[in-house]
Amino acid sequence: MSDILMECSQQQLREMLDILNTNLPRRIQQHNFIYSYLFHWEKINANRQQLKSDRWNLRFYTHRYGKPDNCTLISLNGCGDYIVLCFTLQESQEELRECLAKTNLIQWEPKRMRVVCDENIHVMVKELLIQRSQKTNWTCTPFENIMYITKDKIAALQVDEKLPDDLHIAPLDAEKHAEFINNHWSHKYEKSLGLIRQSIDFNGGSGLFRRGEEQPLCWMLENEFLSPGFLYTMPSERRKGYGELIMKMELKRLLKLHNIDLFTFVIVTNEQSLKLHRKLGFEPATRIVWIEKFE
Q: What is the pTM of this model?
C-alpha cells in the first residue's frame, strides 16, 4: 500500500518554489532549502553512497493526495545525522498532520534526531512526534530568528576594510580545513565533521589567512539550507572586524553565484549576532523551533 508521503519530482519542487516566492520573505527558509537541493540535484542524486554527510543525503516529500498550493513538505535525510523539516502553507495544517500521523518513511530509531518547523506549528508537531515515537524525551530549543537580507542590500554592502599586508582572504578547502573548523565549532557533535566537509564541497566558503599558514584565522561557510553560518574568529584575532568582513565577502560571493535573497539562523538570545546581522541589513522574517531527541 502506498505511503501517505510521495517523493517530490523536480517539477513539483520548482512549482513549490514559484508559490513560496510569492510568500517571501516569510518563507525564505523553505524557499532557499528547496532551491539549494535543486541546484545540487545532480551532485546529490548521482551517487548518494559517496556523500560524506547524512544531512546532505536529502529527499523531499509531499502529501500524496494534497493540494499543490499548500506546499506541504517533509524533508528526510540519512539516519546517521537525522533532521526532518516539516512545513505547510495550509492554515488548518491537516495535510501535515496526516503526513506525520500516517507515514512509515520517518524512522524513529536514530539516537540523535532533530525536527525543524515554524513556531506556529511546533506544538502540533511535538505532540505527533511523541505519539509516533512513543517517547516523551523530546525537547524544544530556544526560538531561532530567520534573518533575511535582500539582493539589493547585499549588492550595496561596502567592502572597504583594509587588511594588514600579511593577511589575505581565500576559499576554504574541505580536505585542508574541515577538521580544524569542526574542532572549533561550538555545536560540534559525532557526525559534524562530515557535515562541514560536505558543506564546503558543495557550497564553498571563505577564510581569512595569515600568509604562509595553512589554517584560517576567521571563516564562514554554508550548510544544506544554503544558510551562511559557522562564523568563527580565533580568540587572538577578535574585535578587529574580521567576522563582519568575512560575512560580507560570503554574502557577495553567494549573490554572484545564486542571485537570490539570503537568510541565516540566529538564536533569539544571541544579541551579539543579532547586532551584527542588523548592522549588515538583515531583518527578521519569521521564527523556527528545533525539536530534539537524544538517547
A: 0.96
